[in-house]
Amino acid sequence: MLQTVLNYLGIAVFASSGAMVAIRKGFDLFGIAALGVLTAVSGGVLRDLFLNVSPPASIQHWPNVTVALIATAVATVTARHFIRMRRIVLTLDAVGMGFFATSGAAFAVDHGASWFAAVLIGMTTAIGGGIVRDVLVREIPLLMRPDDLYAVPAMIGATTYAAIDYFGPQWIGLAVGTVLATTLRLAALWFRWRLPTGPSDLITGADS
User: Fold this and answer.
1) Domain locations in the chain as residue ranges
2) Cβ(131)–Cβ(41) under 8 Å?
3) What's the pLDDT tens digit per position in 52-91?
C-alpha cells in the first residue's frame, strides 16, 4: 500500500516539476501536458525495461497517466502564484527523486532483482524522468551538472531501502529511504554540496 502511495506521489511531483519547466520555457498547453507526463512516467518506463516488464507498468493502465495529467493541470493553474519558479522546480524534483528512488528499488525487489540491481534500478527510476525532461527542453540534465548533487542522494536512498528491507519491514525502508534521499538532495541545494571535478586546467572555459 505504501509503495503504491509513494508511486502516485512521485508521479504527481515529477509531473508538476515538468509542467513548471514547460511553463518557464513558454510551451503551449499541449506541450505542458506532454512534458509533465513524460517527466512523470519516464523513470518508471526505464525501470520496467530493465526488469523486462512488458508493456511497461507505468503506462499499461490509466491511473499513472491520469495522476500525471491532474498534477500537471493543478501546477499550470497555480503557477502564477509561484514567484521563484526555479526553486519550486528543484524542490519538487527533490521530493519526486526521493519517492522514486525507494519505490523503484522496492518494485525491482518484488520482481526478483538482487539487492545490488535494485539499488541501481531505484537510482535509475529516480533520475530518469528528470533527465528526459531536461533533454527535451535542451538543458544540461541535473545529473550532469557539477554544482548539483543529484544521483548520489538517489543511490543512498535506494541503498537505505534495500538494507532496511533485508532486515526488517518494507514500509520502514520505503519511509526512511525516501526521507533520506530527499533530505540529502535539499541539503545539497541549500549548502551547495558537490562532488570533486576533474583537473581545473582541463575544464573547457576554465582559463577564460
Assistant:
1) 2-194
2) no
3) 998 898 888 899 999 999 999 998 988 777 645 667 767 7
